[in-house]
């Protein structure tokens, strides 16, 4: 048989919600543990769409349908101007076209584009 005090303790325990400890907000958690930075390893394998944009042009559909082998599309850039490096449709850098590994092309970065950050 249970005594009255035991019943009171059990009812108070039943009323308390289970609270999970969040290591990010718990002041008792060590933040300078040797494995603290390993959680970034999960995002290093994420693939992103990277494009080097030589230039742009707007043409009517009728002109597009008339394009054939050897047709030339005039772009909005001049020879020697930097190309835009886009990651997931966002401008992140500008650079110059360079030849790498024989007949392959690459982009040598000239400048990194900084985002405009507002103070809130």
Question: What do you see in this structure?
Answer:
Strands 1-2-3-4 form a four-stranded antiparallel beta sheet, with no helix packed on it. Strand 2 (83-87) and strand 3 (90-100) form a beta hairpin. The chain has helices at residues 4-15, 61-65, and strands spanning 50-53, 83-87, 90-100, 104-112. The protein starts with a helix and ends in an 8-residue tail after the last strand. It is elongated, with a radius of gyration of 30 Å. It is 14% helix and 24% strand. The chain is an alpha+beta fold and 120 residues long.
Main attributes of the structure:
single chain; alpha+beta; four-stranded antiparallel sheet; 14% helix; 4 strands; 120 residues
Any chance you could write out the topology, listing elements then pairs?
Layout: H1 4-15, E1 50-53, H2 61-65, E2 83-87, E3 90-100, E4 104-112
Antiparallel strand pairs: 1-2, 2-3, 3-4
